[in-house]
# Entry
Amino acid sequence: MKVLPVAIAIENRPVLVVGGGTVAARKVAALMEAGALVTVIAPELAPDFPSPIQHHPRRFEPNDCAGFQFVFAATDSREVNAAVAADARQHHALLNDASAPENSDFHTQAIVRRGPITLGLSTEGASPAVSAHLRREIESLIGPEWEALFALIAETNAPARSQSRAALWKWVLASPLLDLLREGKSEEAKAQLKSYLDKSDAIPTI
# Structure
C-alpha cells in the first residue's frame, strides 16, 4: 500500500480509542501529546494508562464511532477490531487497526520532537519495533540541543533583529552554537548569538 506522510493538526479534535491495554496506552499517550481529545472504550485500563481521558468502562458497541473523525482499534481481539473497523467506515471515520495494518486508513509513526522539529518514522505497520529502533538512532543524532537552540532564538527575538531569516539561520548553522548548547554552555551560546545580532546590520541580506 502506498501512503502519503502528512502531519495532522489534531489538537482539540475528538479521537476514539477502543482498547485498554499497552498498545492502546501508547497510542493514547501520543494522541494526548498532540493535544487530541481522547475517548477510550474498554472494560478495564492497563496500569499507568495515560490520563486525563474520557473513559467508558464497557465493551465496544455499534455506532460508538459516530462523531469521531479518527478511530483506533487497539484491542487484543481481531474480531473486536474488525467490528470497530466496520463501524468506523460506516461513520466515515479514518481507521487505524492495530491488529490489521493492511486494513488501516492511516498508520501512526514513531515520533522524535525537538522544539518545532517533528520527525516521524513509519514502516506502514510492518514492524513497529524497527520504527522504534530508528527513532532511538535519530534521537542520538538530533539531541535536545536543537530544542535549546530554538528556545534561545526565541528568547533573543533573533528573527526580528536579523536582516533576514535566511541570513540568521545560515550563520547559526555555521556557528558553534549547537556544540556549545550540547556541552551545556548556554550562556556562552547566548553571548555569541547576541554579538552576531548586534553586528547583523553589517551582514549582507541573503
